[in-house]
Amino acid sequence: MKLHTYFRSSASYRVRIALNLKGLTPDLAFVHLRRNEQRDPGYAALNPERLVPALEVDGQVLTQSLAIVEYLDETHPAPPLLPIGPLDRARVRGLAQLVACDIHPIDNLRVLNHLKSMGHAQGEVDDWYRHWIAVGLTALEARLAGDPRTGRFCHGDRPGLADLVLVPQMYNARRFGCPLDAYPTLLRIDAACCALPAFAAAAPENQPDAES
Amino acid sequence: MKLHTYFRSSASYRVRIALNLKGLTPDLAFVHLRRNEQRDPGYAALNPERLVPALEVDGQVLTQSLAIVEYLDETHPAPPLLPIGPLDRARVRGLAQLVACDIHPIDNLRVLNHLKSMGHAQGEVDDWYRHWIAVGLTALEARLAGDPRTGRFCHGDRPGLADLVLVPQMYNARRFGCPLDAYPTLLRIDAACCALPAFAAAAPENQPDAES
């Protein structure tokens, strides 16, 4: 098993947390996004999406972080990353997708670079970033705070799929200086997650390819 | 079961296809996105994300189209929307997420409206739309054309999760006048899908809330 990763990629960060929770230690290959190594012909042949993460396993190349995490959960069921009941599974997947579909892609590095190429100054790009963070985290806070199934973590008292998507988004929001006081439930869950070794070891600054 | 939907919403379109494939006929509630009905207090209380679709079922409100589709697949297993093996399931989920995470959110109505609010003219907004379509569909074409598991549909000869995400994206790409000749595999699969009653009945123009 080989994980193609970049220390600062939120989507890679999700998969690193899942691997740690499962106790899996794949080989690592580093793809430097700021140096555009994802566009190298060798990597593009491996993953035509030219994004990270990608997981090589059993002769296949898996892409898309949530698909990879569900694969890891199906093939290494303990500890489970999804609850058992279909309604609860839909809740957890929905929370994860709220971040993975409706916040992260709009604030991804390639989108921010595209805005710059359209003539926007860094300040306008930062405003864009913070706007979509605020829209998305406000919705996520409302969903978590208003549901008795929220526990120490996003769903009950065990970390799972929604948590491993939340934590990288909170990390990135802090990098961009987004105010987070309006999201007490997210802050509480993020802190509970980051106290766990599986989450801490997956953080960008703790990766072999980390740069300051 | 009640589906909150808008005829032109790609994410609603996905869920409508899944419901049709499963032979399910929920009650329908229409949320007119261009009139901003998703921001009405009543709907925002139901779905703090202020997006469609949302599926009310067993006293819960499910959001995020892919989470809803997986719920439908878990609770109504026939016909299956995912293959059996974990590697194949990861492939199909990855194809679906390539569109649902890396194309659609960046080209969503609210993002296009935000670009306009930043001063961009319609032509620049259209360029934005077509840029992300081209990036995403090029990757999807490469993944599908280069894999022997691609069949009449995205995965084998039965329509599933990846197909019901592909078709609404192709529909929208046509609306925006995106050239599609470079994607022969996508065109072939899209045509095979649209020939099926479950897909045809889910098309925007065939919805009760359709407008010209």
From TrEMBL, chains A, B:
Enzyme class, first EC level, given as a word: isomerase
> Which terms in the Gene Ontology molecular function aspect does this entry carry?
glutathione transferase activity; maleylacetoacetate isomerase activity
Key word Isomerase present: yes
Q: What sections of the protein cross the membrane?
A: none
Q: What's the superkingdom here?
A: Bacteria
Q: Which GO terms describe its cellular component?
A: cytoplasm
Q: Which UniProt keywords apply?
A: Isomerase
Domain GST N-terminal as annotated: residue spans: 1-80
Q: Where is the GST C-terminal domain?
A: 85-212
The record's similarity note reads:
Belongs to the GST superfamily. Zeta family.
- What name has this protein been given in UniProt? Maleylacetoacetate isomerase
